[in-house]
Design a protein that fits this description.
TIM Barrel; alpha/beta; single chain
Amino acid sequence: MHNTDILKELVDLGALGIIRVQSSTDLVRTAEALREGGLSCLEITMTTPGALRAIEEARGELPDVLMGAGTVLDAPTARQAILAGAQFLVTPTVELDVIEVAHRYGVPVIPGAMTPTEILTAWEAGADMVKVFPASVLGPAYIKAIRGPLPQIPLAPTGGITADNAGEFVKAGAALVCAGGWLVDKKAVAEGRYEVLTENAKRLLDAVRKARKEVD
């Protein structure tokens, strides 16, 4: 899939699921549960044990899911993730070497940033989209404020996103909302109640669709 097609799929769906679990077995089952709820764009964090193997497995078992690697902190990890099958990279901070590796391999990269300076620095370094983190602390009003002077930069708020507040971030101008902790309920995963994750995915996507209609 081409770089622009991957970005289009992410923005068209409007939501990205972040998977941070304790084992690779949980990971594939979690990905399947989220996919059942319609969430076909997922990010596996590199802090998950066996993350690289899990990306390979998930790509094999869920070919219709767009699978990225998150919490990518350096160039070697970026390269390993891409070789394992990651279709896009996400970082928590502005890592210029990761952006460089992503460009080298033709893979979209979404660096994390907070301040206007960081956001613009990431964009000018070649970010395809900028992850605004931590969104729960900054709030939807911050996204709206950033969009004023920097309307050309697609923003992906991350951190504390739920079905209850996702719509407000969309209305504020977010190109994409990224949900993790609330979406992938740790207690539900531990108890094997993966249907909770499927329901959360449906609720998140419904909130995004509803907010987009209101904006249109």
